């Protein structure tokens, strides 16, 4: 918690950037919230829990995960600084649909959903920013559902590489961790690794220690099926 | 369009209920929007389109659909009166992730995302209501992704029946259309039909012309895997 206290200037500016609000509104949020850290691998929220708090990510990385029929981990959502999960007010505590797990040590601000709603009611930019964040997440979730339905495991790996690559340089820096990438698209490390090796062999991507580069974006596109 | 004009009192009260706003705010939205109807089976938005408008459902029913590898239709989202889809402002037009198709004749209000954002900025209740709607949809999408990953086709049919049943009476009235139910959970009509027949044979549900009733909710729960 000391982390957040000493870095509260950082928290304030993160809140301002996230919600497009001024420092006074950010301070209202900080005043209504409590800081809490979670160790790496800690379960922040359990699937099935009924919670009445919103969690605002200040530092670290977390994941919403579900498990496949074979017991494999599937990532439903990724949360980074500036992201929000948990409850958003409305009709009482909301049942959580996935475990949320700290991938790296997480610092968060926890705020009662009702208190956040009161602030949002007063300051239109908050609800608007929340809506945009949630709309983006909903699009991502739909794209993942689509890919899970329409693409082979190999195709999903390639779609993920295309998403990760910088739009201008077509490079991924630092290179993705294959195990991570596999979990995100719901396949095994072996399948992901084989799919990536095939791309390299065909000269579609080039791998170095510092980055991967897509050399033939159109051929990558054609391999997404 | 005449439909909406003559029913504008109805539209106003629908907007008030949806956004928890007063009539004056609802009128601002109506004044900034244009009414548009879509025939049954019309494609309202195409996957891949970049659109800058938000669509507010006034009457009818629409679906966000994607296609599986085998070409089967999969429903990603359902939209009914009071629901919203399309763009929500932010950084220019948003690429649509699914086709949105009218299941029944749709009456909608179309409003530029930027205009809606301006109203939401002014009136905190709008953004807050939008956030809650989107959070609910995001939860549903995650649950569907989870079910698609963790449950058999039969289990998904049973989970859908549980969702459709009234919490108190445990009945589904009117009875679901099996083809519809199958599409929603991403399976064939035949599989859904077989799964439902098995429930009836085992005395877990009872079907009549006017409604279906879950007689043994705990045994239904146990069959969801």
UniProtKB/TrEMBL annotation, chains A, B:
Q: Does the keyword DNA-binding apply?
A: yes
Q: Where in the numbering of this chain does the HTH crp-type domain appear? A: 151-218
Record key words, sorted:
DNA-binding, Transcription, Transcription regulation
Name one process (GO BP) from the record: regulation of DNA-templated transcription
Would the keyword Amino-acid biosynthesis be found if you checked this record's keyword annotation? Answer: no
Could you tell me which residue ranges the Cyclic nucleotide-binding domain spans? 28-137
Q: Which Pfam families match?
A: cNMP_binding, HTH_Crp_2
Q: Which GO terms describe its molecular function?
A: DNA binding
Q: Which InterPro entries does the record match to this protein?
A: cNMP-bd_dom, cNMP-bd_dom_sf, HTH_CRP, RmlC-like_jellyroll, WH_DNA-bd_sf
The name this protein carries in UniProt is Helix-turn-helix domain-containing protein
């Amino acid at each position: 918690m000391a982390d957040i206290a000493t870095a509260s200037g950082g928290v304030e500016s993160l809140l301002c950037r996230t919600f497009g609000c001024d420092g006074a509104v950010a301070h209202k949020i900080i005043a209504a919230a409590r800081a809490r850290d979670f160790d790496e691998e800690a379960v922040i929220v359990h699937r099935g829990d009924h919670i009445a708090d919103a969690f605002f990510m200040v530092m670290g990385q977390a994941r919403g995960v579900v498990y496949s029929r074979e017991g494999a981990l599937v990532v439903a959502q990724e949360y980074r600084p500036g992201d929000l999960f948990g409850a958003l007010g409305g009709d009482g505590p909301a049942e959580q649909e996935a475990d949320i797990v700290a991938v790296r040590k997480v610092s968060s601000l926890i705020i009662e959903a009702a208190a956040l709603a009161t602030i949002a009611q007063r300051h239109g930019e908050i609800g608007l920013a929340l809506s945009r964040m949630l709309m983006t997440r909903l699009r991502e979730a739909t794209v993942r559902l689509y890919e899970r339905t329409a693409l082979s495991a190999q195709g999903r790996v390639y779609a993920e590489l295309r998403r990760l690559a910088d739009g201008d340089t077509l490079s991924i820096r630092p290179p993705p961790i294959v195990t991570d990438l596999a979990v995100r698209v719901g396949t095994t490390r072996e399948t992901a690794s084989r799919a990536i090796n095939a791309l390299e062999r065909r000269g579609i991507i080039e791998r170095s220690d510092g980055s991967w580069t897509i050399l033939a974006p159109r051929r990558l596109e054609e391999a997404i099926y």
